[in-house]
Amino acid sequence: MKTALGVVAQAATLTLRAARPAAGALLFTTIFGCSAETRAPATPASPPAAPAATSGSAVSTAPAPVAEQASSDLAATRVDPRKVPVPSADAPSRGPVDAPVTVQVFSDFECPFCAMAAPVVRELEGEFGGSIRVVWRNLPLPMHPHAALAAVTGLEVYAERGGAAFWRFHDSIFAAQRGGLDAKTLEKLAVDAGADPKRYHEALEKHVHDAKVQADLDAGDAAGINGTPAFFINSYFAVGALPYPEMRAIVVQALREAKR
Q: Which of 172, 213, 239, 253 counts the highest number of beta carbons within 10 A?
């Protein structure tokens, strides 16, 4: 889902131009997720009730040449490890760098299903502790008018105040999402997380973080990700706001393989 980023300085907003995924990319639909192929209102609707343990599985809708196998027991597809995106060393993350399992979260701050998935990821961290590392990847979808601005806002908080502040911003923006996001709300959340208002506006005007967001978008495009939330759990690919038992099963399998 390759995009171009640009700042409209006076409005302090970002615009996105989206292109369809390249032929042969991994294409998935999901029961509980936002797709780049659909449109949504400017203000996200309230997320649906949490799905049952058997719902929300990722379902392949087209041949995926990079996939090795899909397990009938997992809501995920095993991907050729060479095709797994490599996160940058300075991406927002939580957990040991040398953890046996890395959970890459491709997410959109304005996606209601990403908000549903966030506490599930936190629960994984609570259960598996130092065995997993969570890495944040920005994938703002063009259907969400404030998602790109939210992405660079989060990166500015991270640049100014570090990981703890970023994750506070992460939690607060998802909590504020139901009320609707706009430039004023995002600035307030950034300042509440510790960002300096002057530095924040300078970062927007100078496009300081656009390249990093674009790098995540390009990585998602190369991997064939076409909706959010999407996850790479080592070499397992999953998409959608999966319930905890399904996410846990993927992590358990990834851990089992990492220990071989």
A: 239
Q: Residue 88: which domain range?
A: 26-36+75-258
What DSSP line would sit under 205-248, residue for residue?
Answer: HTTTTHHHHHHHHHHHHHHT--EESEEEETTEEEES---HHHHH
Q: How are beta strands 227-228 and 34-35 bridged, if at all?
A: antiparallel
CA dihedral of residues 215, 221, 223, 224 (deg, nearest 10): 160
User: CATH number, domain at 201?
Assistant: 3.40.30.10
Secondary structure element (H or E) that encloses residue 13, with its range: strand 13-18
Mean pLDDT over 201-228 rounds to 97
Average pLDDT of the chain, as a whole number: 81
Q: Is residue 45 part of a domain?
A: no
99-151 confidence digits (pLDDT tens): 999 999 999 999 999 999 999 999 999 999 999 999 999 999 999 999 999 99
**Cα radius of gyration rounded to whole Å, the chain:** 17
Across the range 36-49, mean pLDDT stands at 39
Residue 93 predicted with pLDDT over 60: yes
Q: Is residue 174, in this structure, part of any structural domain at all?
A: yes
8 Å CB contact between 170 and 189: no
